[in-house]
Amino acid sequence: MRSKTRSAALALLCVGSLALATACGSDDDSSEGDGGSTTITWWHNSNNDPGKSYYEQVAADFEADHPGVKIEISAMAHEDMVDKLDAAFQSGDMPDIYMERGGGEMADHVDAGLVRDLSDDASEEIGKIGGSVAGWQLDGKTYALPFSLGVVGVWYNTDLFKQAGITDTPTTMDEWYDDIAKLEDADITPISVGAGDKWPAAHYWYYTALRSCPEDVLKDAVTSLDFSDPCFVQAGDVLEDLLATDPFNAGFLTTKAQEGATSASGLLATGKVAMELQGHWEPGVMQGLTDDGKGLGDKTGWFPFPAVDGGAGDPADALGGGDAWAVSEDAPDEAVDFVKYLLSDEVQKGFAENDMGLPTNPAASGSVKDPALAQLLQVRDDAPYVQLYFDTAFGTSIGGAMNDEIALLFAGKASPQDVVDATQEAADAEK
């Protein structure tokens, strides 16, 4: 069963058919209240405005239309949410509605009987979402409805680029190194990274692997769990070259990803650094980390991860993934109704208007206001191949071992070969 579901889980999303950090927490399962009402527990990671307030209003609107239903919301910082969800998966004490990232992670949850099959109950929504739902399907069944799907790239401060004399965004690693040098010469810290949370650092290796490895090698690794191709070591070599330029913020090894003004996203939002490699949710996150609620505003720029010299990957390929609403196996039927409402035209349009991510409901595509996010919609739809985040694709054990060793590479305590060896060792244990 394990190998079957891993194969079916697709460690990738094919954007040709419209193919893209996370979860959160609560301690209470749904229950019948004293007055016969139904309480639904909902965990998400939009813990800053505008997202937090928007979801509160969405829940209130649903409650108004469904007398007797109470939505109990737990909005957390992403990392807290992930930790609490991991504990919930282990204990089986699940929230009714939570964020599911698909891939090998979801396959594990399905194997454990924790996730409700939505294939029949949400057939209309599944049809509307179309190919985007593929990453959350196993053996012909749909276990979650993706509400945001996008790609990772480099967000940057256009004013700081101008101050450093940078007129064009880089398309190759050598050009990126030149821009890093220009920023350093202008006394501007080039890049922030929340390596304290590991996954933001791991995204660099994911991207250098995507640029170094042919698509067929990456696809094969999903099912074979074989990392012997030299391109995986090459990915680490390229990352070492980037690290040698010393581009990151002071204390980056312990910096948090998105929590507060001193986090990696906070440093970019407040003009302390010029760039950050992050996902499509970044504009919304930055809005919650500045006093004026605007983030970088009209100073927001974006460019794709540069091409690697000699790499066999297509420079147009992207690293990405998404977030989907899943319903726990023991949740009441009203939880399914609420998830369907979250994918409605109305709610998805509001999600887009608040710059919370890239909606999957086609009716909401035109509601994306932020020009940089609108650009990402086109990148997402035009990418010939989108590689799902490696830690999600390969599941907790392999992905965790990979991320841990990449963090050590950032700290200068591991080599490119060490990353591959640690990943392969974890993969062998899974076979």
TrEMBL record:
PROSITE patterns attached to this UniProt entry: PROKAR_LIPOPROTEIN (PS51257)
Entry keywords, A to Z: Signal
Record's keyword annotation contains Signal: yes
Signal peptide (residue range): 1-21
Highest taxon of source: Bacteria
Protein name stated in the entry: Extracellular solute-binding protein
Source organism of this protein record: Nocardioides mangrovi
